[in-house]
Amino acid sequence: MSASEPNIAPVHGHTRRAQNIEAQLAADRRARRLRGAAFGLIVVAVLGAGIYLAGSVFLGQRGTTTVAAAMPMRISMSGFDPQVIHAKPGETVKVDWWNTDGGMHLTNGVHTLVSDTLGIRLELPAESRKTISIKAPMAAGDYDFWCDSCCGGKENSGMHGTLHVEV
Predict the structure, then answer these.
(1) Measuring CA to CA, which of 50, 81, 94, 141 is 20 to 30 A from 34?
(2) Which domain holds residue 81?
(3) How many structural domains is the chain composed of?
(4) Are 20 and 96 members of one domain?
(5) What are the CA-CA distances from residue 111 to residues 14, 50, 84, 115, 160 (Å)?
(6) Are 76 and 143 found together in one domain?
C-alpha cells in the first residue's frame, strides 16, 4: 500500500471501497427498475386514454340501436351507413342517427341530411347521436338524400344515401 491510501481492513474478503461500489450498483439497478416501471405505467395510461377517446369510432355501437323500433344509421366522412333505407309508401321510418366524426373534420362542426324531394334538412353535431323520423312519400321509388356540410357536398357521390320506397 502506498502512503496516500488509507489502511482499510478487508471485511468478509471485501474492502470498504468494493462494498461501496456494490451498493452503488445495487442502487442503480433499483433506480433502473423503478424508471422502467414508471415508464410502463405512463405507456399504459396513454394507451388507455387513447382507446377511451377513440372509443366512439372504434368501439362504438355497430349496427344495433338502443332506441325502440329505430333503424341505426351512421354518418362519417365515408358517407351514410347503411346507404339505403327501405320503407313502405307513407311509412314514417324512425332512424337512430349517429356521427362518428370529430368537429375539426366538419364544416361548422356538423354533418347534415338533406333532401329537397323529401323536404328534409337536418344537422347532427360532431360525435353525437339523435333519433330522427323520415316520412316516405306515397309514390314508390328511390329518393336521394345527401350531406352538404363537408366532403364536397351534393357533388360527392360518396356522401349520398337513398330512401327506397317499395310497394
Answers:
(1) 50
(2) 71-165
(3) 2
(4) no
(5) 76, 24, 17, 13, 12
(6) yes
Cβ-proximal residues to 114 (8 Å cutoff; 6+ apart), any chain: 120, 121, 122, 145, 146, 147, 148, 154
Asked whether the whole model's pTM tops 0.90, one would answer no
C-alpha cell at 115: 333532401
Distance CA 98, CA 79 (A): 12
**Each residue's pLDDT tens digit, 108-155:** 889 999 999 999 999 999 888 899 999 999 999 999 999 988 777 788
Cα(105)–Cα(107) distance, integer angstroms: 7
User: Residue 75 forms beta bridges with which residues?
Assistant: 80, 99
Rounded-to-integer distance, Cα 116 and Cα 23, Å: 80
The residue type found at 133 is: S
